[in-house]
Amino acid sequence: MEKIRKGDDVVVITGRDKGKRGSVLSRVDETHLLVEGVNTVKKHQRPNPMKGQTGGIVEKTMPIDQSNVMMFNPVTGKGDRIGIKTLEDGKKVRFFKSNGELVKA
Fold first, then answer.
1. In a domain? residue 101
2. CB burial class (10 A; 0-12, 13-18, 19+) of residue 74?
3. What rounded mean pLDDT belongs to the chain?
4. pTM assigned to the model
5. Domain count within the chain
6. Is residue 82 part of a domain?
7. Residue partners of 11: CB distance under 8 A and separation at least 6
8. CA–CA separation, 13 and 17 (whole Å)
9. CATH number of 47's domain
10. What pLDDT score does 105 carry?
């Protein structure tokens, strides 16, 4: 079970974008995430008339390692660690380590 999933609100804890908050757009692979508004780069793009693309400088979101982000806890207003526990009915749920509240999916 993944601790950070698509649609979760996260806070960047290290690097150039430290302190920025955004939602996870997708998981690139096991350890990398695309986060909205984080780790954006400028890419020089050549025009391609066959695809209808114009040339110029384009903003692009690049993947960030999941170790560099923490889940945002709305109760505390900070980043928080995530744990996984099994309920009595056998269902696995995620919870915040600081206050034990369940993560809203």
1. no
2. exposed
3. 94
4. 0.84
5. 1
6. yes
7. 19, 20, 21, 69, 70, 71, 72, 78, 79
8. 8
9. 2.30.30.30
10. 64
